[in-house]
């Protein structure tokens, strides 16, 4: 469907949407860039998409144009009239929920499998990521996560062993999911530009390894990376049974956390029970 919409800058001026620092608002206006972001999850024609933080609706436009059925959660009520205009342009494709995405049950709101797409403030994005990845039931209802982060955080999500960026977030994102860096986004693409570069991470759920409780794995990585410079025999000392579990998996206790790959952590958590 070809729809002509006013330029985003005009929409922002008309609705007085000066960017709020408190809400972490850095808007994207470049339609081509937004189309490329909306293409990361694959063909969205007729698919359910949960967008968090649509703001004035730049990314929302691209998602609607790609044929997605979008549910958008936005806590800044100033943005609602601008989003209502998109609802008129794409009838029946957009549902807007005013509220804090941290306090909303996404699965219940969506009621069907859905792809998540979001350009969020850094702290909210990380908190939601941990929630999406840490769910007790697996596979999750979301089919993919396409999320903008500060580049440094994106690198921590996709990092491999032996790098400074590798840590708890990498293990969480990779032990039962596949995470990749999908696109780097220059700070100048945002209005106002943030201080640092950004990058988009794309995550798809994988198979959950047998016999591993998410909470146990979390406790192991928390202890191991809590003292990442120390040998495991020191950093895991405080976690009951962890040193025995390490011995049972045949991992040398003189190694440091960042030398273990994700499968090693999974093996230790499994042995810990
Ligand atoms: C970085 S801006 C991105 C706006 C737009 N998606 C874009 O790409 O131009 C982040 C948006 O998330 C919204 N936001 C911040 N915290 C939120 C939360 N907890 N729940 C829902 N929306 C939130 C802000 O109001 C803002 O509109």
TrEMBL record:
Protein name (Swiss-Prot/TrEMBL)? Ribosomal RNA small subunit methyltransferase A
Gene label: rsmA
Q: What's the catalysed reaction? A: adenosine(1518)/adenosine(1519) in 16S rRNA + 4 S-adenosyl-L-methionine = N(6)-dimethyladenosine(1518)/N(6)-dimethyladenosine(1519) in 16S rRNA + 4 S-adenosyl-L-homocysteine + 4 H(+)
What the protein does? Specifically dimethylates two adjacent adenosines (A1518 and A1519) in the loop of a conserved hairpin near the 3'-end of 16S rRNA in the 30S particle. May play a critical role in biogenesis of 30S subunits.
| CC terms in the record's Gene Ontology section | cytosol
Task: Read off the NCBIfam families from this record.
Answer: ksgA (TIGR00755)
Q: Which Pfam families match?
A: RrnaAD (PF00398)
On the tree of life, the source organism's domain of life is Bacteria
Domain Ribosomal RNA adenine methylase transferase N-terminal intervals: 33-207
> Signal sequence: where?
none
For this protein, what is the EC number? 2.1.1.182
- List keywords of the entry alphabetically: Cytoplasm, Methyltransferase, RNA-binding, rRNA processing, S-adenosyl-L-methionine, Transferase
Task: Report the InterPro entries cross-referenced here.
Answer: KsgA/Erm, rRNA_Ade_diMease-like_C, rRNA_Ade_Mease_Trfase_CS, rRNA_Ade_methylase_Trfase_N, rRNA_adenine_dimethylase, SAM-dependent_MTases_sf
Give the organism, scientific name: Pelagerythrobacter marensis
**Cellular compartments annotated:** Cytoplasm
Q: Which GO terms describe its molecular function?
A: 16S rRNA (adenine(1518)-N(6)/adenine(1519)-N(6))-dimethyltransferase activity; RNA binding
Q: Which amino acid positions bind S-adenosyl-L-methionine, per UniProt?
A: 26, 28, 53, 74, 100, 119
Describe the family membership recorded for this protein in Swiss-Prot or TrEMBL: Belongs to the class I-like SAM-binding methyltransferase superfamily. rRNA adenine N(6)-methyltransferase family. RsmA subfamily.
Instruction: Classify the main location.
Output: cytoplasm
